[in-house]
Specification:
Neuraminidase, 5-stranded mixed beta sheet, alpha+beta, about 35% strand, 6-stranded mixed beta sheet
Length: about 425
């Protein structure tokens, strides 16, 4: 009897010990522990070197901020393109656009969480990626994407699963790689290096390295270089921009959120340097504002209505442009011609170019050709007729845009504006 009781007690003790061990295992598998295999002396990085340069500095006064931009000073040609989805498909919103020679890649992250691909010339949909699961070749969410045009590959980043999936331009899955970080924006470079922008993304497993805003990973996804933007504590606010890193014409640029300066990243030489700075005096964020950025950023900006940078910019062979957002008023566009040194800025638009009646800041540029998108507002062609009558009183004709609007089948869908920038 005593032996039987002893055996029973032993079984109970072993069961409780096993349960405790399982509980310990479950705890260690949560949080950032999934990344622990990446942490070690070989995973810690060096820093990009900040290199002083001679950036273009624009000091805009109130008149330049409140001015109207003449589109004839900016562009030489345009066309409007309707997006023709497969049956049942739709583009709810456009968060990012990238171009290849014949294709347009559109990320709709927040409305339908899809990456859709359209023919550049006809607008016909040719491919679509949507979340499918958590297994190999699947994604739980589409957070970001980029193109490896040299190898005709599409890279899709899933922040939820912390992995990058590779597909060819036909949509076939190639392979995937797990990341040692979480991020929100990235670019691929020669040698399969990846440059990520990340803040407040739960990278505490990296120790001090987690405080960085920029991470350069090699082809094995090991962190090589990092950079922390010194003027703003990027960890304090969750108000996250898109596409702060861009590449055009061999120039890689980084527009830190909330800031007023554009930085150029030279991956080969491990340097970061300022190339474009826009000072808005009291209309923009001052040094003391940048020091106090935190969770109340949105309510603070609604109160003071100051302009702030939010990542959107472009660099072409001739132009540099930056957009500044604002709560309670129109956004500010700033364009600088690198050849003529002409400055075009303003919160309003003067539609003095041909018969164009739509415009928005470019989301992507390939050389001098840029793409943005517009919303028709859910109206129909007849709703524009009164507008045309008023504008035609000035002697202008609107043949081109009228013909386009008459061809639109779905006025709820976003429309792409494709235009060429002036060379000089």
């Amino acid at each position: 009897m005593c032996r039987s009781n002893f055996q029973l007690q032993l079984i109970i003790i072993l069961f409780l010990f096993s349960a405790c061990e399982r509980q310990k295992d479950e705890v260690t598998e949560t949080g950032n522990s999934k990344f622990l295999s990446f942490v070690g002396s070989d995973s810690l990085s060096t820093e990009f070197i900040y290199s002083e340069s001679d950036p273009v500095v624009l000091n805009l006064d109130e008149n330049q901020i409140d001015a109207k931009i003449k589109l004839s000073d900016l562009m030489t040609d345009y066309r409007l393109l309707s997006l023709k989805n497969w049956e049942g498909g739709v583009v709810g919103d456009i968060d990012k656009i990238l171009l290849s020679d014949s294709l347009i890649f559109i990320l709709d992250q927040y409305t339908f969480n899809s990456l859709q691909i359209f023919d550049f010339f006809t607008g016909e949909q040719v491919l679509q990626f949507i979340p499918t699961g958590e297994g190999p070749g699947e994604m739980k969410e589409i957070t970001e994407f980029d193109l490896d045009e040299a190898n005709q590959r599409i890279l899709i980043y899933d922040n939820s699963l912390a992995k990058v999936l590779y597909f060819n331009f036909k949509g076939d899955f190639l392979f995937e790689k797990r990341l040692p970080i979480r991020a929100h924006s990235f670019k691929i470079f020669s040698g399969n290096q990846l440059l990520f922008s990340s803040f407040n993304n739960g990278n505490g497993h990296l120790g001090k390295t987690a405080e960085s805003d920029i991470f350069l990973l090699d082809s094995n996804f090991i962190i090589q270089n990092t950079y922390k933007y010194p003027k703003i504590n990027q960890m304090l606010s969750n108000y996250v921009p898109r596409d702060v890193i861009r590449a055009n014409g061999g120039v890689v640029t980084y527009f830190p959120r909330f800031s007023n300066e554009l930085l150029q990243i030279d991956v080969a030489n491990n340097t970061i340097s300022p190339i474009f700075q826009v000072n808005l005096e009291s209309k923009g964020l001052l040094e003391k504002d940048l020091e106090d950025i935190g969770p109340d950023f949105i309510s603070d900006r609604k109160e003071d209505q100051k302009f702030y940078g939010f990542g959107l910019h472009f660099v072409s062979p001739t132009w540099m442009g930056m957009k500044f957002n604002r709560f309670g008023g129109p956004e500010l566009h700033v364009y600088y011609n690198k050849t003529t040194r002409e400055v075009i800025s303003g919160t309003g638009l003067e539609f003095d170019f041909e018969d164009l009646i739509f415009y928005s800041f470019p989301l992507a540029c390939d050389g001098q050709r840029c793409v943005s998108f517009i919303r028709l507002g859910g109206t129909q062609f007849k709703d524009y007729e009164e507008l045309f009558k008023k504008m035609e009183a000035s002697g202008r004709e609107f043949t081109k845009v009228k013909k386009f609007l008459e061809s639109v089948e779905d006025f709820e869908q976003p429309v792409l504006l494709i235009f060429d920038l002036k060379e000089f």
